[in-house]
Automatic annotation (TrEMBL):
The lineage of its organism: Bacteria, Bacillati, Bacillota, Bacilli, Lactobacillales. This is Aminopeptidase P family protein. Pfam families: Creatinase_N. InterPro entries: Creatin/AminoP/Spt16_N (IPR029149), Creatinase_N (IPR000587), Peptidase_M24B (IPR050659). Coiled coil: none annotated. It comes from the Bacteria. It comes from Streptococcus pneumoniae.
Length: 125
């Protein structure tokens, strides 16, 4: 895990989050080094995952270190599966998302606490 991810985990603990979803591409790049036009990151204490579609899998593997790379078009389904398998309940997310994406999140993470985070990654810079 890189130093940025370590600082990220410390901030997550401070905010009492079990995990957080990052989908702003600038923040994905800041955390992972991956600069594709499709990528979502999920970070918890035990897993750091970058989900992208299959077009970017080779670039993601070359540009990223310390993150598990998953190729899938439905990033929320992948992350929801991870969250449920790990028994997590307090999931943060960047608050600069569309209403439709938020509704998709609510469906994917039904019964869990979705907690909007303002400038979470930007505050680490």
């Amino acid at each position: 895990m890189n130093k940025r991810a370590q600082a990220f985990l410390a901030k997550m603990q401070e905010k009492e989050l079990d995990g957080i979803i990052i989908n702003n591409l600038k923040n994905v790049y800041y955390l992972t080094g991956f600069w594709g036009s499709n990528g979502t990151v999920f970070i918890s204490r035990d897993r750091q995952v970058l989900v992208t579609d299959s077009r970017y899998i080779i670039a993601a593997k070359q540009e990223t270190s310390g993150f598990e790379i998953v190729a899938d078009r439905d990033e929320l389904a992948v992350i929801a599966g991870i969250v449920k398998d790990m028994g997590l309940s307090r999931i943060g997310f960047e608050d600069e998302i569309s209403v439709s994406y938020y509704h998709r999140m609510q469906a994917a993470f039904a019964g869990l606490d979705l907690l909007p985070q303002t400038q979470f990654v930007e505050g680490l810079r």
